[in-house]
Design a protein that fits this description.
heterodimer, A: 114 residues, mainly beta, Immunoglobulin-like, 4-stranded antiparallel β-sheet, 3-stranded mixed β-sheet, 0% helix, globular, B: 282 residues, alpha/beta, Oxidized Rhodanese, domain 1, 2 domains, 5-stranded parallel β-sheet, 4-stranded parallel β-sheet, 30% helix, 12% strand, Thiosulfate_sulfurtransferase (chain B), Rhodanese-like_dom_sf (chain B), repeat (chain B), Sulfurtransferase (chain B), Rhodanese-like_dom (chain B)
């Protein structure tokens, strides 16, 4: 007996929307190969900002990707080693941070203020 | 089509939430955003479960689309105002889809959910109850949908616009940088395709750039206005955003969205692929 683990819905190719930002990194992701940039967006009072838009810009300032923070303020990108800029937009204001990412998990924090 | 008929501002939307004959629809792949709070009165459409056939790799047919809109309480003569996350990618996909099935009056909220959030406009969690309708979709308008053979024949002949990120275009990445990269198909782009990432057309707050800015972006990229155009991305929703810009905002005549996009093309046997940052030769 095989269990019907593949539901019809899972046969449909995923779109390009971002997965749940606070979920654990899937086991299928090889952290020896991936460059993960992850962290929390906080406001001027140090509180996590959920629903913020975090944009990943490359070394030339060009847009690469964007995610929405989880209710805990968490975001995550799968990038490549090198220099990146994180730009957070929120109803509490905006903020930027430059990151020099290396292979594996790069943890950062981005604060926003108006 | 033009900006005046295809696009509404978040401000217009907030002032018309209760306008008769206007239905707000949130479209997303992940509908948890809708469930956590949405534009008051909006119904939701799930890009995956409502708009994709559950068995075949295709989207829903004319009868399925008629049944979906009937159940959602949307009538043929309603003004449908679409918005969503991801800078309106999925809403733009739905816009293209509504047009494909002949809906007369469809609009996008400029900036979608992002602009609504950044403006700190109100949400609620109430799911509206709308009486079912007898929606009748038209036969699909294939003048706006491209299929794979047509795309192969368009190499070196029509404008091909690859709207993925530069690294996906060059073959350095297989998916956008917010997704894990493991995929099975080949990387690269369709030879002769111009690289104009969808994001070039949007401001940081998700709204579309002005018509003058947009015309300059595609002109500078080498888009030949006298030729037909096919836009593609990885799976057809980012390219719907660009299709919307070229067809509905800039008014180009023959613009198609290739919804098979790179997940189909990059898995075909024997078709040409170009690597690197240049379009490549036919």
């Amino acid at each position: 007996m095989t269990s019907p683990s593949n539901t019809a819905a899972s046969n449909i190719a995923d779109g390009c929307a971002a997965p749940d930002q606070s979920a654990p990194i899937p086991a299928s992701v090889d952290l020896q190969k991936e460059t993960v940039i992850t962290g929390v967006v906080t406001n001027a009072d140090g509180e996590a900002v959920g629903g913020a838009y975090v944009r990943l810009l490359d070394a030339s300032g060009e847009f690469t990707a964007e995610v929405v923070t989880s209710p805990q303020g968490v975001f995550r990108f799968f990038a490549a080693p090198g220099s990146w800029t994180l730009r957070a937009l929120s109803r509490h204001g905006n903020g930027d941070l430059t990151v020099d990412a290396t292979r594996g998990v790069n943890e950062v924090g981005v604060s926003v203020s108006s | 089509m033009s900006r005046d008929t295809a696009l509404v501002s978040a401000d217009w939307a907030e002032k018309n939430l209760d306008a008769p004959g206007v239905v707000f629809v949130e479209v997303d792949e992940d509908t948890s955003a809708y469930d956590g709070g949405h534009i008051p009165g909006a119904v939701k459409i799930d890009w995956k479960t409502d708009l994709q056939d559950p068995v075949r790799r295709d989207f829903v047919n004319q009868e399925q689309f008629s049944a979906l809109l009937s159940e959602k309480g949307i009538a043929n003569d309603d003004t449908v105002v679409l918005y969503g996350g991801n800078n309106n990618w999925f809403a733009a996909y739905a816009y293209w889809y509504f047009k494909l099935y002949g809906h007369r009056d469809v609009k996008l909220i400029d900036g979608g959910r992002k602009k609504w959030e950044l403006d700190a406009r109100p949400y609620n969690k109430d799911v509206p109850v709308r009486a079912a309708t007898q929606y009748q979709a038209s036969a699909p308008d294939l003048s706006i949908r491209a299929f794979r053979d047509e795309v192969v024949q368009a190499i070196g002949v029509k404008n091909l616009v690859d709207v993925r990120s530069p690294d996906e275009f060059a073959g350095r990445l297989l998916a956008p940088a917010h997704l894990p990269q493991e995929q099975s198909q080949r990387a690269g782009h369709i030879p002769t395709a111009l690289s104009v990432p969808w994001s070039k057309a949007a401001n940081e707050d998700g709204t579309f750039k002005s018509d003058d800015e947009l015309a300059k972006i595609y002109g500078d990229a080498g888009l030949d206005g006298s030729k037909d155009t096919i836009a593609y991305c990885r799976i057809g929703e980012r390219s719907s955003h660009t299709w919307f810009v070229l067809k509905e905002l800039l008014g180009h005549e023959n613009v198609k969205n290739y919804d098979g996009s790179w997940t189909e093309y990059g898995s075909l046997i024997g078709v040409p692929i170009a690597l690197g940052d240049e379009p490549g030769k036919a």
